Amino acid sequence: MELIDIGCNLTHDSFDEDRDQVLEKAFAAGVTQFIVTGASMEGMQKAYELALSRPGVMYATAGVHPHRADTFDEETGLMIRELVAHSEVVAVGETGLDYFRDFSPRDAQQHAFREHLEIAAESGLPMFLHLRDAHEDFHAMLSEARARLSEVVVHCFTGSRDELRAYLDLDCHIGITGWICDERRGTHMKEYLADIPANRLMIETDAPYLKPRNLRPLVKSHRNEPRWLPWILGTLAAARGDHPEKLAEQTTENARRFFRIPAK
Question: Which fold has domain 3-259?
């Protein structure tokens, strides 16, 4: 199988000591390309530099996570605009709304999200979006801008079936993580995973976060890694009633089309 991890935070400092080894383990597991998430001014610059270091293997996004939305200013917007001009940067984001923790005030989150929407509309690049406990505001803002945007993925989707349908109606792609491997909070998703059209489905680890909970008896480390993407794929395939190899082929094709990247 050949897989693409569409959301991994490989610039995180937990990878500083063994990043090359992490990548080699991912390659051995069949993960051949990576979209490295940019989620802050420092993080998006590092993601871009990492993409430069592995041409054709790594690509980057440029944006500011809603947790850091209160840091978004004119300089931030200029930096995103500069980065998205480079071919290694393939999406605007991570951006969106997160009302679960409210690490940034909601008005700051909405302002930053609106600015990202404008940059995406100007650049024509896809959007890599974050949503948690903010469906009404998020959906309203995205709906208003949707006609001016190209492709959109709601990454790490964990919402309800009704919310899923709302984003599918907006012609969004859906990113699935190891959340579906958590018997405490991902069970509801298994009831609707088969509702996602095959051509709008992509997979991701969100490493080093969201290590699949059902890996814990087998792996002691709490750090998630891209090498566990096939584990997520297997869980997703079982829930959908798909053959894993066919699902791997489809999600990889979707990711290449969405991010406009060639095969390695």
Answer: TIM Barrel (3.20.20)
